[in-house]
Amino acid sequence: MNEKLHELADKLGIAFSFSDAGLKKQNYAVDEKVVRFFAKAMGYAADTDKQIDASLDKLEKRRWQSVLQPVYVCRRDNIIIDVVASDLSGIVLTAETSGGETLSLDYEYRRNAINRGNLYKEDLKITTPLDIGYYDLKAVIGGREYKSCLAVAPDKCYDVLPADRRLWGFSLQLYALKSRRNWGVGDFTDLKNFVCFCRDAGADIIGLNPLNVLSHDYPEEASPYSSISRLYLNPIYIDIEAVPEFMPADRKPFEKLLDELRATELIRYTDVYTLKVRMLEKCFTRFRENKNTVRQREYAEFCEKHGESLQRLAVFQAIYEQQTKTVWGGWQAWPKEYHSPSAAGVRKFAADNQERVEFFKFMQFEADRQLSAVKAEIDACGLRIGLYRDLAVGVGRDSAENWSNPGLFMKDAGTGAPPDAFFPGGQKWGLGTFLPQELKEQKYQPFIRILRANMQNAGALRIDHVMSLMRLFVIPDAYDAGTYIYYNFEDMLNIVALESCLNKCMIVGESIGNVPPGFIEAINERGIRSLSVLWAERWNDGWGDFKAPEQYPANAFASVGTHDIAPLRMWWFGYDIELNFSLGIIENTADRDAAYHKRENDRGRLLAALDKAEVWPEDKPRSGDYLFGEKYPEGIEEAVMRFMAKSTAPVFLAQLEDILHVEKMQNVPGTDRDKHPNWRRRLPVRLEDLTEDIAWVRCIAAIHKER
To answer: If you average pLDDT over residues 458-477, what whole number do you get?
Structure first.
């Protein structure tokens, strides 16, 4: 690679080489055109040597152009800021708290000043003890005042796990819950009722899919990992009959349709969402007509609390709803007067369509109210952790987040992943990606708001693809190959720890895939717990034996699989291998046959691990090798549940799909609904029937033998 381009890439945090996490690890040199693309996307032209020289000079001058950085993110015991000025003597520092109190700050010079012309840059270590939190930092130098933001972080994230007890709970996809009363998709009342099942079963945690708002106009775009805003909730989870303005007569014309929607194996998203919106519109009309009620005041308070971010989401949805009737291509294809939320055309639209904008706000108000009711039920039932929410790694590029702040996101590129043990071909997710420098320029506020929104009503938060705190694999739209873009890892860790403590929410990092050396140790040191999956907890990079329960990480949340991995019964029979072959993910019969041979070996290793752990049910002991076409091993679900419950992991999450013998995938990464019904599969047993289901009863009993 061009030496100067190499230098520019290094300073911008663009990886010029990387390795994958495949079963046969490979190293890759990044094509220069990819590096040049990302340099330009970050504002540094790199097409010619002359441009590269100019960009390196621009980058070198960047820090010298302001007295203070826009934000300083520091640990409480090591608060250091750098200052650029022509005279560094007599600096007066103050910090204003969120409560309005102004504190005078003492500091000491680090005596490592460097200069550029008549300017000097020096590090100052603040010696005044400060509580964790955010401060408005002010520096008076030579009679002039300069401002910045100071974030003071704790050493570790919040943690509520008891030292003398290992907890367990369930992992579920909320939309998949089936009940006699819901409208064809799991809702917040189902979740509230499930809390009671957890109390009765002795469970303390409920892991959920991301609950964020999806496309209003295209309900079939159902991936919970591709939202239009990670700040707000998906209205499809609203229980219509629990809305205070709902009247039973509203439902009568749709009884037959509701019966059909409840009976389907796959969720009919368009029918469900369209019906729910129609009912919510009726409720909203009644809400508006009923003036000066407590509910009206609560709505006004909700809107005031969420302010501009809620307004922008609602306006985006209202414009999108109108434009999608005639314009194809998302918000970037709209007339130019709608391209910016601050544009005069957008303000006029909001004023002319105020009632519709208010309706979208109303849906968020009601969704928030119902999720808060779930949290109240958790508190009443005494669950130690409660909701374990999921923060998606990215956001849909045709999203309200992107529209509201387009300068924050990488243009013409999206996130993905290089090949790994589970996905040998890599993954191209196409999600919006923060520009690292711009994120810092905005004082990390977009990231902070997203963390806070998803910690709401939660006792723990799973950060999807937690490696994104350090780096993200990004692929330009025009190329098939991508590379890693690096973020300020220390700043990101500090913010996560700070928000975790301020919101009393534990943090778990999903770290399956291409994990950098030392990364797990770094997040564990800050109190971020890792995620352990049965299929990944093996020796020899996935080729060797399964680890014994006592060999599991002592600080992890453990589970059998994830929503992207075949449920236990499907895995055993190898149905996922045949599915991947039919979808072209496994490209030829030789690779398919090799996968079957490996699976046969893996089944034997799993049986051996279960034998050694002595976890088979007493009335269903292992009766053979179950290989070469023998029958399915009865009791293996119970054995696996007990195996995982026996592990040293402090939290075990049992997936309902494993308990209930599901044989089909919830999601096949890299495919859309034209190839596989992702995010649509409902559970085979209704909530009302769970406690009578023999598989449920036996699996809970198996878990109780160990936890």
So the answer is: 96
Q: Hey, what's the torsion of the CAs at 358, 364, 369, 372, to 10 degrees?
A: -160
DSSP annotation string for 201-250: HT--EEE----EE--SS-TT---TTS-SEEEEE-GGG--GGGSTT--GGG
Helices (H), ranges, 456-587: 489-502, 519-525, 568-573, 575-582
Average pLDDT for 109-131: 94
Supply the Cα-derived Rg of the chain in whole angstroms: 27
Q: Say if residues 67 and 81 touch (Cβ distance below 8 Å).
A: no
Structural contact between residues 364 and 333, judged by C-beta atoms closer than 8 angstroms: no
d(Cα 136, Cα 151) in Å, to the nearest integer?
9
Confidence at residue 422, expressed as pLDDT on a 0 to 100 scale: 58
Task: Tell me the backbone φ, ψ of residue 481, rounded to 5 degrees.
Answer: -105, 150
> Average pLDDT, whole number, for the chain?
95
**Is 422 in a helix, a strand, or coil?**
coil
% residues pLDDT > 70 (the chain): 98
Whether the CB-CB separation of 37 and 477 falls below 8 Å is answered with: no
Residue 229 CB coordination number (10 Å)? 26
Give the three-class secondary structure for 376.
helix
For 313, 492, 526, the CA distances from 401, given in Å and listed in that order, are 8, 19, 29
Q: How many helices and strands, by DSSP H and E, does the chain display?
A: 20, 25
Instruction: Tell me the C-alpha to C-alpha distance, in Å, between residue 141 and each of 21, 126, 144, 338.
Output: 51, 16, 5, 43
**Three-state SS at 318:** helix
Rounded Cα distance, 276 and 583, in Å: 34
Contact (CB, 8 A) for 212 and 229: yes
Map 71-134 to HEC letters.
EEEEECCECEEEEEECCCCCCEEEEECCCCCEEEECEEECCCCEEECCEEEEEEEECCCCCCEE
Phi, psi of 27 (to 5 degrees): -105, 145
pLDDT at 628: 62
Binned at pLDDT 50, 70 and 90, residue 23 comes out as low
pLDDT (tens digit per residue) in 280-337: 999 999 999 998 889 999 999 999 999 999 999 999 999 999 999 999 999 999 999 9
Distance CA 95, CA 631 (A): 70
Integer angstrom CA distances of residue 326 from 110, 336, 338, 538: 62, 15, 14, 53
Taking CA atoms, 36 is separated from 31, 61, 590, in Å, by 9, 20, 38
pLDDT number for residue 669: 85
Confidence of residue 424 (pLDDT cuts 50, 70, 90): low
Residue partners of 92: CB distance under 8 A and separation at least 6: 104, 139, 140, 141
